[in-house]
Design brief:
By secondary structure, the chain is an alpha+beta fold. The chain folds into two domains: 2-79, 3-Layer(aba) Sandwich (Creatine Amidinohydrolase, Chain A, domain 1), CATH 3.40.350.10; 89-323, Creatinase/methionine aminopeptidase superfamily (Creatine Amidinohydrolase). It has seven helices and 17 strands. The chain has helices at 40-48, 62-71, 81-88, 93-114, 125-138, 206-224, 232-245; strands at residues 2-3, 11-15, 30-34, 53-56, 76-79, 143-151, 172-181, 191-192, 195-200, 257-259, 266-270, 283-286, 289-292, 296-299, 302-307, 310-313, 322-323. Strands 6, 7, 8, 9 and 17 form a five-stranded mixed β-sheet that branches. Strands 1-2-3 form a three-stranded mixed β-sheet, with helices on one face. Strands 12-15-16 form a three-stranded antiparallel β-sheet. The protein is globular. The N and C termini lie far apart (52 Å). Bound molecules: zinc ion (2 copies). One zinc ion binds at residues 176, 194, 196, 301. One zinc ion is lined by residues 194, 258, 285, 287, 301.
């Protein structure tokens, strides 16, 4: 656990056996390994001292937080994202360059999908997912974060786990994938990509074609609406309005987007009720979808950055409906 007081130096508290993995840097933090016979919670409480306003990582183990709360009964707690989220959500030019490189790498995988270089029909979702993952790495990511492949009725589940289902002809196939990529000289976690393209394994019926048209208009309208000073909920509204107008409103079951950076999901949240204004340097996804239970689903997702005068989409892969024949 990294303990960062506002008024003192930071300390990284780690078990002795993990200490060799730490790249020590005294300019950033003091390293304090603890022995198997020591009580790390008491050690942490000692570092906190008399301070009572504490924030803890959103992803800390509940067991650790409960122990800390017992050791520091008068402290008040809040999630670290309430402090760090506002800092992280505005990206500087280096961060935008890293996000752009990750998005371009993901675009190249999407282009291969569109070109038919990744066979779909007759293969399982899991096989296609594994190939997309390999291609993300080959295009420069150092880690695959996810590769959703959802075919036919499975595509109606936005976060479907790719499985043994074999992809057939004349189905929608939602492919939503991303990884982390480091620019040269960056030895941190890197920056994330996240793109969705939906392809068809044969000519669409009229209903699917119409739904896709509405989806494409919704996604384009939401992207076009991005600019500093626009409320996050307004971007969500733009996407939803276009899908509502085409009669598919009930089938758009999630928020329009999420911020992205060193984490694949972070602030700002592009969702109804979020009145936060978009700021220059915000990077987030615009990803409306239409999901018809037990039948089909579709989503188009790009990462965009709010610029001084509007928007810069980082994903440029084709948005048109691509039909892949066997
Ligand atoms: Zn995605
Ligand atoms: Zn996303």
């Amino acid at each position: 656990m990294l303990v960062v007081p506002v008024d003192d130096e930071a300390t990284l508290v780690v078990p002795r056996l993990e200490a060799p993995r730490v790249r020590a840097d005294d300019r950033l933090f003091e390293l304090r390994p603890w022995e198997e016979t020591e009580d790390p919670v008491a050690l942490l409480a000692g570092l906190v001292g008399a301070r009572r306003r504490l924030a803890i990582s959103d992803r800390a183990w509940a067991a650790l937080l409960l122990s800390l709360q017992r050791a520091l009964p008068s402290a008040s707690w809040r999630p670290a994202s309430s402090v760090l989220g506002r800092l992280r959500e505005v990206k500087d030019s280096e961060e935008i360059a890293a996000l752009a490189a990750a998005s371009s790498a993901a675009d190249r995988v999407a282009a291969a999908l569109h070109a038919g270089e990744i066979p779909l029909i007759g293969r399982s979702e899991a096989e296609v997912s594994a190939e997309i993952g390999r291609r993300l790495l080959a295009e420069g990511h150092h880690r695959v974060n996810f590769a959703i492949v959802a075919s036919g009725p499975n595509a109606a589940s936005p976060h479907h786990e790719p499985g043994s289902r074999v992809i057939r002809e004349r189905e929608t196939v939602v492919c939503d994938f991303g990884g982390s990529l480091r620019l040269e000289g960056d030895d941190g976690p890197g920056y994330c990509s996240d793109i969705t393209r939906t392809v068809l394994t044969g000519p669409p019926d009229q209903e699917v074609a119409e739904a896709y048209g509405a989806l494409q208009r919704a996604q384009a309208a939401a992207v076009a609406g991005v600019a500093p000073g626009v409320a996050c909920e307004e971007i969500d509204h733009l996407a939803r309005r276009a899908i509502d107008a085409a009669g598919w409103g009930e089938c758009f079951v999630h928020r329009t987007g999420h911020g992205i950076g060193i984490e694949e999901h972070e602030a700002p949240w592009i969702v109804a009720g979020n009145e936060e204004l978009i700021r220059e340097g915000n990077a987030f996804s615009v990803e409306p979808g239409i999901y018809v239970p037990e039948r089909f689903g579709m989503r188009i997702e790009d990462i965009v950055v709010a610029t001084a005068d509007g928007v810069r989409p980082l994903n440029l892969a084709d948005h048109d409906l691509v039909v892949l024949e066997a």
